[in-house]
Amino acid sequence: MTNFTSLDSNTPLRIVFAGTPDFAAASLQAVLDAASQNRYEVIAVYTQPDRPAGRGQKLVASPVKQLALEHDIPVYQPLNFKDAADRQALADLNADIMIVAAYGLILPKAVLETPKLGCINVHASLLPRWRGAAPIHRAVIAGDSITGITIMQMDVGLDTGDMLLKKECDIKPEDTSGILHDRLAVLGGEALIEGLEAIRAGQVSPEKQNEDLTCYAEKLTKQEGEVDWTLDAITISRRIRGLLPWPGAYTQTPVGVMKIHAAKLLDTEDQDFECGEITLVSKEGIVVTTGKGSILITELQFPGGKRMSVQDALNGKFKDQLQVGKLLGSNA
């Protein structure tokens, strides 16, 4: 176990930060804000290599890299740490601690043991629930009412290390994964600074995870977005919210795939309709029957079109696909 009591409280903590997307950038920003008080020094940033994006497929720097460059912080972008030169470069930084947040690489034991205090992770769930790649999405899909941030001491397992600090966050009935992501990103930065302060003060009490309470947040796939209208309305509603903004929910129509950008759970009694049948059309949206109950689709997108309200879609060229009695899904 890492000894967190051997720090000089008068010396800034030398930090290497490893992360890639917006979620991680929020934590890096929190550290940079705290660094202005001369308590922390971000000496280097590690992030994923630049990736092609957009129609032109030009190489784009990650949000973490962009933020690091704005603050003149050296950036390292190894494909992995299999090369001895990359491991040595990390060792040469002589870091006190490495902070990892949505980095996108599994760190080998040699890397985890390089900083004096090892590596800590900003994880978007209340461990041991939702270890793995998509904890925010899986929490929404599962219908969890609460989630949060865990600051964790990293080990060679997948999100299996000792927990150092937790901060809770409610999941609201209308939350999508995108909305919850943004809230957790801010909370992650707050929890990280609180955790770092506890580490500096030697006041952390690492807690083992209860293996009996674990579940795995599998990586999302595009195929998961297709709505199965035979499922109940509650499950479908959660999946639509949990898969926004990516990969997004969609359903088949005679003119191609229709994306579902927003939908509400309706308090309706079951009636004799087919699963996926449109039973009501109004300016508020279209009501679709499921295996049990109904949902109200309020925003959608047809092939080649843009995201729009149902009211706007009813004035468009695909309005005939949104009439009462039309079927959505594989039977369309």
From TrEMBL:
The record's section on Pfam families has: Formyl_trans_C, Formyl_trans_N
Q: Where is the Formyl transferase N-terminal domain?
A: 15-194
Query: What's the EC number here?
Result: 2.1.2.9
Q: Where does (6S)-5,6,7,8-tetrahydrofolate bind?
A: 125-128
Catalytic reactions on record: L-methionyl-tRNA(fMet) + (6R)-10-formyltetrahydrofolate = N-formyl-L-methionyl-tRNA(fMet) + (6S)-5,6,7,8-tetrahydrofolate + H(+)
Record-level Gene Ontology MF annotations: methionyl-tRNA formyltransferase activity
| Protein's UniProt keywords contain ATP-binding | no
Q: Does the keyword Transcription apply?
A: no
Question: From which domain of life does this come?
Answer: Bacteria
Q: Which InterPro entries match?
A: Fmt, Formyl_trans_C, Formyl_trans_C_sf, Formyl_transf_N, Formyl_transf_N_sf, Formyl_transferase-like_C_sf, GART_AS, Met-tRNA-FMT_C
Q: Which GO terms describe its cellular component?
A: cytosol
SUPFAM superfamilies per the UniProt record, alphabetical: FMT C-terminal domain-like (SSF50486), Formyltransferase (SSF53328)
> Which CDD domains does its entry note?
FMT_core_Met-tRNA-FMT_N, Met_tRNA_FMT_C
- Give the record's keywords alphabetically: Protein biosynthesis, Transferase
Q: Where is the Formyl transferase C-terminal domain?
A: 219-317
Q: Which HAMAP family match?
A: Formyl_trans
Primary role: Attaches a formyl group to the free amino group of methionyl-tRNA(fMet). The formyl group appears to play a dual role in the initiator identity of N-formylmethionyl-tRNA by promoting its recognition by IF2 and preventing the misappropriation of this tRNA by the elongation apparatus.
Q: Which family does it belong to?
A: Belongs to the Fmt family.
Q: What protein does this entry describe? A: Methionyl-tRNA formyltransferase
This chain is encoded by the gene named: fmt
